[in-house]
Input
Amino acid sequence: MSAAAGAIDNQREGSFAALGNVFLTRLPAAPLPAPYVVGFAPDVASMLGFDASLASAPGFSEFFSGNTTRDWPSTALPYASVYSGHQFGVWAGQLGDGRALTLGEAEHNGRRFELQLKGGGRTPYSRMGDGRAVLRSSIREYLCSEAMHHLGIPTTRALCVIGSDQPVRREEIETAAVVTRVSPSFVRFGHFEHFYANDRVDALRSLADHVIDRFYPACRDADDPYLALLNEAVLSTADLIVQWQAVGFCHGVMNTDNMSILGLTIDYGPFGFMDGFDANHICNHSDSQGRYAYRMQPQIAYWNLFCLAQGLLPLFGERYGEAERSERAVQDAQRVLEGFKARFAPALEARMRAKLGLDTEREGDDQLANKLFEIMHANRADFTLTFRNLSKLSRHDANGDAPARDLFLDRAAFDAWATEYRARLSHETRDDAERAEAMNRVNPKYVLRNHLAENAIRRAKEKDFSEVERLAAVLRHPFDEQPEHEAYAGLPPDWASSLEVSCSS
Ligand code: AMP
Ligand code: MG
Output
């Protein structure tokens, strides 16, 4: 355990912590009684250069519950950072890490990662919150961030979940847990908005310089490095949303404080992978207007980038004379923001071609994909299984149609689409087997369906954590067949339709 503790540094040059007190407050975590290990990801440990047997080392749960931080020297304490943001389309003012504490950075193989405890107790940014996270939501974050990573979708990672019997009040009484999240950076759009709103252009510049120096050094060579930074955020965010849409993932709370400057999926709350496809699906029970519905995610991402651009505005256009600077800075920002559409649409189309197993590009591919979504929506066909099972369809006859076809109540609608699909496949050179193999590398068999997470949570509440680990292991190989785990790929049971997830985590 001391190996991990010794490898974490939170004062090093070039780190977020080195930006100083305007950005953060140092404080120890609030003690958590009798902590125990609920989940542990050995591959994240290896990524950090920690031993894969770390979780059984003495003191592991004391350390990753934050309990040992009360003994740390005051200048090296963990820290909570300050940010602001737009929540549900409205300026919310100051927010900040209300229950997250960054322990510091670990460096391995030339890569630096920040380790952050989520649920470590109250901070100066907690407002009305208790600073805690419950076991249920911590398991969901742990499972989903690991599932996303293994799907190839950019995300923060999770090293472990530590539980405690300490009661936490939500809609009902639950128990506390702490997830150790891992990311190269936890900087959010809201960090930039914060310093813009407070008219701290100096701090805004330091923050932007930090992100450029650490993550986008090539921006320094651009005419306007800060505009180049915005461009990087635009591109990485567009790419991220393409990936979300392509697997039927709904984030649920795409507030600007939950958007990573690196284009990572961050802040897992009421997220969900869709079972039956509904373009209007709202995974967050508290989102009554459907602002963050599945089909809204691309335009919300664009809206959020607009807020980021606004926050960076004072830094743009330094190369212009004072007289024309502000006007040209706005024009530049608008031009860069337009890049979202130019990036998103073709990338989504390319992704859809890959999902349909189309190796070549032809006129009408887009309509073919959209028609499939239309009939999936009308039939509430299972998102994951529809794409996965399409790989079994033959380009010559209807013999292999059943696995996909059976997911549609309106069989005639599927048959009509399948006829078009087969006609399109006749222009491809790959045979069925090659196409199936390629499709199975982009269409996962296993995703974190709500009911799977719920099963693991129910068992964990009874102190049986084996299902958390079993499920995590299945989700580490989402594209493999794993015949022994067929049940994890099946349609949700009836009880799953009544599951609701809200912001309360
Ligand atoms: P979220 O929408 O969950 O990302 O959270 C929005 C803001 O509320 C962030 O500033 C969080 O740190 C804060 N927050 C959420 N839950 C809690 C809690 N239980 N205690 C303190 N702050 C919280
Ligand atoms: Mg958040």
Summary: The mean pLDDT is 97. Residues 1-186 form one domain. DSSP finds 16 helices and twelve strands in the chain.
